Amino acid sequence: MLVLHVYTRHPVTVSARLANDLPTTDSSGVVDMRVGSPARAGTFAFEGNGLVAKWHAHDLHQIEYSFQGTVEVETGAGHYLLPPQQAVWIPAGLMHRTTIKSEVRTVSVFFHRGLVPDAGGSARILAVSPVIREMILYGVRWPIDRAHDDPEADGFFATLANLVAAGLDREMPLCLPTSTEPLIAAVMAYTDSHLDQVTEADVCGSVGLSDRTLRRRFVAATGMTWRSYLLQSRFLRAMTLLAEPGPTVIEVATAVGFESLSAFSRGFARYAGENPTAYRRRVLAGADHGISARTSDRSWSRVPPQ
């Protein structure tokens, strides 16, 4: 059971959807989260691992908050990392696919387009305020596919939509560019799969380019140098690994290609705004604050604070 601690007098239990129990995609690639429900907004609680979703879109805006684990979201414009205690914004109609490689627990809120009219056209990772986090948690009582709507839910989600809209400019730089150019895409794929020891010479050899041509074409395709891409990819991978309780900070640094722990710590702090140890402490503590995992069943229960 997942116990969500919120301020309510009576426990409310809702179901968390598993990876093998997700809404289906129609022929146009659109997933109907409401499944005929009249709701203009609602939530979708998910837990699972090992998921690689097909490319799809929603007819609703989505904000997904990760309570535990890391989610990867890819669009035509970028590859986004959703770490614990952050949220990803996906506007309605945007084609995307989700990859989950470890155990995650997330809650999404879906909004009718009219509730957030200035949603933008791209995905973004957001620094979510404590108020929005608690409202997302509280909103689990109103799933998006509920049979009936009610004025209380309408008012609640309208307020949440206003808060989310006001925070859409608080974007976190947790994104890597993507490319439709096969050769550049191959460079990215090789780089990402060899972060522990990749060199520019290795990449050039894998795709058959000179170092000068690689530098020129990579900047032209992505707007950033290959070395900048490499460094950003290393820190994003480190954030994923640090969100898991297993590897030590030294092991994470080595896994992403740093021979010096001090160099890794300094670079990580510049990128993430805090050192690796502080980041790990925060995200792992956040997973236990307000949401604790048990294995007796797959329901999410709302209970008063203990």
Strand-helix topology:
Layout: E1 2-5, E2 12-15, E3 30-31, E4 41-48, E5 51-52, E6 57-58, E7 61-68, E8 71-75, E9 78-82, E10 87-90, E11 96-100, E12 104-111, E13 124-126, H1 130-138, H2 151-166, E14 171-172, E15 175-177, H3 182-193, H4 200-207, H5 211-222, H6 226-242, H7 249-255, H8 261-272, H9 276-288, E16 291-293, E17 299-303
Parallel strand pairs: 1-17, 3-6
Antiparallel strand pairs: 1-16, 2-17, 4-12, 5-11, 7-10, 7-12, 8-9, 8-11, 9-15, 10-13, 13-14
Helix pairs in contact: 3-4
CATH homologous superfamily heading of the largest domain: Regulatory protein AraC
Low-confidence stretches: 1-22, 290-306
Q: Approximately what portion of the residues adopt beta-strand conformation?
A: 15-25%
Q: Strands of the largest sheet, in order across it?
A: 4-12-7-10-13-14
Rounded to an integer in angstroms, the radius of gyration calculated over CA atoms is 20 Å
Using the alpha-carbon principal axes, give the shape: globular
In CATH terms, what is the fold-level topology of the largest domain?
Jelly Rolls
CATH class of the largest domain: Mainly Beta
What is the number of independent domains? Answer: 2
What is the first-to-last residue Cα distance? 16 Å
Q: Number of helical segments? A: 9
- Helix coverage percent: 25-40%
The whole-number mean of residue pLDDT values reads: 85
Q: Report the order of strands and helices.
A: EEEEEEEEEEEEEHHEEHHHHHHHEE
Can you characterise this structure?
The chain is of the alpha+beta class and 306 residues long. The chain has two domains: 2-172, Regulatory protein AraC (Jelly Rolls, Sandwich), CATH 2.60.120; 179-273, Arc Repressor Mutant, subunit A. 35% of the residues lie in helices and 24% in strands. The chain has nine helices and 17 strands. Strands 4-12-7-10-13-14 form a six-stranded antiparallel sheet. A five-stranded antiparallel sheet has the order 5-11-8-9-15, covered by helices on one side. The longest helix is centred in the last third of the chain and has 17 residues, at 226-242. The two termini are 16 Å apart. 36% of the residues are buried. Residues 1-22 and 290-306 have low confidence and may be disordered.
